[in-house]
Design goal:
The chain has one domain (4-457). Helix content is 80%, strand content 0%. The chain has helices at residues 9-42, 46-70, 73-82, 89-110, 114-119, 125-138, 142-157, 162-185, 196-218, 236-267, 272-308, 312-348, 352-384, 388-412, 422-452. This is Multidrug-efflux transporter.
């Protein structure tokens, strides 16, 4: 085994930042689409802003299956590269594409349950109508979104992250005029209010998929991999193998993200102002979260490559170096959030009650940014090991058994103290993320001991 001194922190940081910077740009661009939706819908009314929040709380958990399953692709592809098995990559691309399409269709069907979800809540009729309008439009973008994610993850697994950055930025820029057309009514389109964001989002998702296809077909970088040299029909066994790796990761991703999404639904009976304030703070937190998440994806790619080379020490060197970068980054984002929270909330809305709630919730977000960074890097590292079961169990315990339980008790009951509403749920976020950070760190320690004492990994 190579000594730790063999590795250069400066070189490793350079590799990580070269991978992470375009991923960050692509992730931020995707999240800024949500920011733009919230801002433009919020300028119509607090009800339109709340409609976007509630609709996304239904749409995102449904589409998370596609996103989560495909998160297994980058470390698998980078592992093939490290093991000098690039001939396997086209097969993975085609079969993951068929799997993604199947999951997208499933997501479209799941959204049809929205009336049953909203029927159990005391939601305002106007809000309910806008939610249905958004969902009826956005579901048609699901297949395009699935195709885009497949090609993006293949490219990132090949350590070529710039295409997703540029296509993400173009998608963001297109989202603005499309939102304007369908929210306010222009060029002959009807004024749909917040529901128009769903139409714009669906169109952008197909355009981004088209952009990735053009890039794969014509960019010289992809030529050696012959990704489109032979068409493949669905192969059930191959799709099942990918599903077995990706589905537990998708569930884990669902447990994490749905913790935040479900809260918007639970808060809906408290009124549009409460939901809007929660959505503003959550959207800001989501944008900040893209930084450690993108770094984690870069770490997973580096670790997958090292694992393909049977280099255990190098694998954990990449992890430790990336974690240090993440901790430095979170110090900056937490301070920025604390200092500029009032200014940030003002961007979203001019409603004083929404601004007041959002700024208070943003203060709580500063508390959990540290544990959030540690846990997302930990999950990314475990993806490199294909540790689907470990990720699944830890996230279930952390987010739903701990985080959501604490949030429900503090937010909606008087068991421990008078009901705190949204504040109670955000304290639950802090608890869930902290538990996840601790358990994921212990799991990675187990893998370190296992690999560094395994004769097969001694170089």
């Amino acid at each position: 085994m190579k000594s730790s001194s063999h590795y250069s922190p400066r070189i490793e940081i350079t590799h990580l930042l070269r991978l992470a910077a375009p991923i960050i740009a692509a992730q931020v661009a995707a999240t800024l689409m949500g920011f733009i939706d919230a801002v433009m819908a919020g300028q119509v009314s607090a009800t339109d802003l709340a409609a976007v929040a509630v609709a996304n709380s239904i749409w995102f958990p449904a589409i998370l299956l596609v996103m989560g399953v495909l998160m297994a692709i980058p470390p698998i592809v980078s592992h093939h590269l490290g093991a000098k098995q690039k001939h396997k990559i086209p097969h993975d691309m085609w079969q993951s594409g068929w799997l993604a399409l199947s999951c997208a269709i499933a997501a479209m069907l799941v959204v049809q349950l929205a009336p049953y979800i909203l029927s159990v809540m005391d939601v305002e009729p106007t809000l309910e109508s806008l939610v249905y309008g958004y969902l009826d439009a956005v579901i048609w973008g699901a297949p395009g979104f699935a195709g885009y994610l497949v090609l993006r993850n293949i490219s990132e697994g090949l350590s070529f992250t710039k295409p997703s950055m540029w296509i993400g930025i173009v998608g963001l820029l297109l989202n603005i005029p499309l939102n304007y057309i369908f929210i306010y009514g222009a060029l002959g389109a009807p004024a749909m209010g917040g529901a128009g964001c769903g139409v714009a989002t669906a169109i952008v998702q197909w355009l981004m998929f088209g952009g990735m296809i053009i890039c794969f077909r014509w960019h010289q970088f992809y030529k050696p991999y012959a990704l489109f040299s032979a068409f493949e029909w669905p192969q059930f066994h191959a799709m099942l193998q990918l599903f077995k790796v990706g589905f537990p990761m998708a569930l884990a991703f669902f447990f994490e993200v749905s913790l935040f999404a479900v809260v918007a639904i639970l808060l809906a009976p408290l009124g549009a102002t409460i939901v809007a304030g929660h959505q503003v703070a959550l959207n800001v937190s989501s944008i900040i979260f893209m930084l450690p998440m993108s770094l984690g994806m870069a770490i997973s790619i580096r670790m997958g490559y090292r694992l393909g080379q049977k280099d255990a020490e190098g694998c954990f060197f990449s992890l430790k170096t990336g974690l240090k970068v993440g901790l430095a980054q979170v110090c900056c984002t937490a301070i920025f959030t604390l200092l500029f929270r009032h200014w940030i909330a003002d961007i979203y809305t001019n409603d004083p009650a929404v601004i007041d709630l959002a700024t208070n919730l943003l203060m709580l977000s500063c508390v959990y940014q540290l544990s959030d960074t540690i846990q997302v890097i930990g999950v990314s590292a475990l993806r490199a090991f294909k540790d689907a079961s470990g990720i699944l169990i830890i996230t279930l315990v952390s987010y739903w058994l701990c985080g959501l339980s604490v949030g429900l008790m503090l937010g909606l009951t008087d068991w421990l103290r008078p009901a705190m509403g949204p504040y109670g749920f955000w304290i639950g976020f802090c608890v869930g993320l902290t538990v996840a950070a601790i358990l994921l760190s212990l799991r990675l320690k187990y893998f370190y001991r296992k690999l560094t004492h395994d004769p097969e990994w001694q170089n």
